[in-house]
């Protein structure tokens, strides 16, 4: 029993630390996922949506700390019972999400590892079993170090987690797992290779044949059936290849400029998914960046999901000398975890990406 508890303790502790650190690397991304859970379509806890970022930070810091506490044996009863309550809650949440198909990606490992709802639920079941084993063998959980050393390690874990979370909020995630990372070519990530696997879809046709409903399955072609058509449903057997970027475009006045801009030699993208929520210091920072970029020969593009009225207001207030193009809000939130943020592109390849706090680090050399 003691060995089984020790193995479970290591597995749970390491997994909680890894999962927590991945989300702590991108707390804004996790807050977007919480907003999805809090929405009226899922849990209907819309009053929590304004606090999603604060909740995300508290949850992931606590997750990392519980993993550390378990490994070093700090306050075993508090740690183990906290783990049990947390995993029961998330097991319920992931089952609800999977059964009712409410959220297609739980965000348990951020953008690093994508799990289906049922895979996530299965993972939580395994964790629940391991934590129950630890609960049964709680007497075997002893501090690895002296009381003073254990307390110091616990305190350092808390301070380190908060400091790391604060750093990525003020800058950008240390590791970018999204398809808009530095070095990625956005145009390539938007296109499907010719040899990519195709989706395998069954079409289930329902006909009234001689007064009885009968189903016929095909791969798409209309079945040769003598009867009255009632309905057709589809079942995805295999989803096939999906381009890493599939919801991004740059449009202005109803015209799509995506391909043109992503094939331009030198482009600066100023991304603000919601101009009304953008900080004034950030808007001033991108104004200064735009002036410098234009002077050095770059094509400067503003990207936002905000309407024309707020665009015009801010253009007049900050004297922006560039135009905003429309793009999907979810896509813009994915591109850069800063509102606003800046990207430098060369023929669609991301050369630099920074938080508005770091615009002075941009390498805007003369290109004309």
UniProtKB/TrEMBL annotation:
Identify the domain of life: Bacteria
> Where is it predominantly found?
membrane
Membrane topology per record: Multi-pass membrane protein
Check the record and name the NCBIfam families matching this protein: BT_3928_fam
Pfam families annotated for this entry?
A: MauE
Q: Translocase: present as a keyword of the record?
A: no
Biological classification of the source: Bacteria, Pseudomonadati, Bacteroidota, Flavobacteriia, Flavobacteriales
Annotated keywords: Membrane, Transmembrane, Transmembrane helix
> Transmembrane residues, as ranges?
7-24, 51-73, 80-100, 120-141, 153-172
Q: Specify the Methylamine utilisation protein MauE domain's residue ranges.
A: 1-135
> Which terms under GO biological process does the entry name?
methylamine metabolic process
User: Origin organism of this chain?
Assistant: Formosa sediminum
Q: Which cell locations does it reside in? A: Membrane
Q: Does the keyword Membrane apply?
A: yes
GO cellular component, as recorded:
membrane
Please state what the protein is called.
Answer: DoxX family protein
